[in-house]
């Protein structure tokens, strides 16, 4: 389909391991967002890209989290030394609009479980 | 205080009922407002934007009260398919370029 694609859909890892989560946005969408959603909570902002650059990374919880979007399309969220508290659904969204205006189109998410 | 607050519910209503959800936001500089719908274990999807004058889309009506920093969503003639979590979303322009989501209000429509 033409929607936002996220891989893997499920990832189980052990505490201390490194994980990468991939997001392929809708073609032509310049804005890309990563959110994290824990059970019973709303999505929590992590980082926003406009093109290749991270326009706002104020939501990243600590320096174990990093995201890139080298060619302005696909983005990868990287988590080092995973902790059990990192377990959540990581949602990617893209938008043709900048600065949070207008609709965000979400992928189905990557469910991360840290044992 | 959370930036966006919602009653988590659940709201259990019979089919055909009218139900209203409320949401309050703390930042008076908030400029854009939305309601998103999220089905169980699915991604959020935009339901409707909220405009200052209030707006309607079929059975759904959204209202904004800037003075009280309050947003509402009214659903008339509830359908079983309306069962979902409704997320209140607020954007503050000119600061962080992000949408802030509430925790969501869960609606269960029953026969």
Walk me through what this model shows.
The complex is a heterodimer of chains A (115) and B (111). In chain A, 0% of the residues lie in helices and 48% in strands. Chain A has strands spanning 5-7, 10-13, 19-24, 31-37, 44-50, 53-56, 65-68, 75-79, 88-95, 105-106, 110-114. In chain A, strands 2, 4, 5, 6, 9, 10 and 11 form a 7-stranded mixed beta sheet that branches. The model of chain A has no long low-confidence stretch (mean pLDDT 93). In chain B, strands 2, 4, 5, 9, 10 and 11 form a 6-stranded mixed beta sheet that branches. In chain B, strands 1-3-8-7-6 form a 5-stranded antiparallel beta sheet, with no helix packed on it. Helices cover 0% and strands 54% of the residues of chain B. Chain B is built from no helices and 11 strands. By secondary structure, chain B is mainly beta. Chain B has strands at residues 4-6, 11-14, 19-25, 32-38, 44-50, 55-57, 60-65, 70-75, 84-91, 99-101, 105-110. In chain B, strand 9 (84-91) and strand 10 (99-101) form a beta hairpin. Chains A and B meet through strand 5 of A and strand 5 and strand 10 of B.
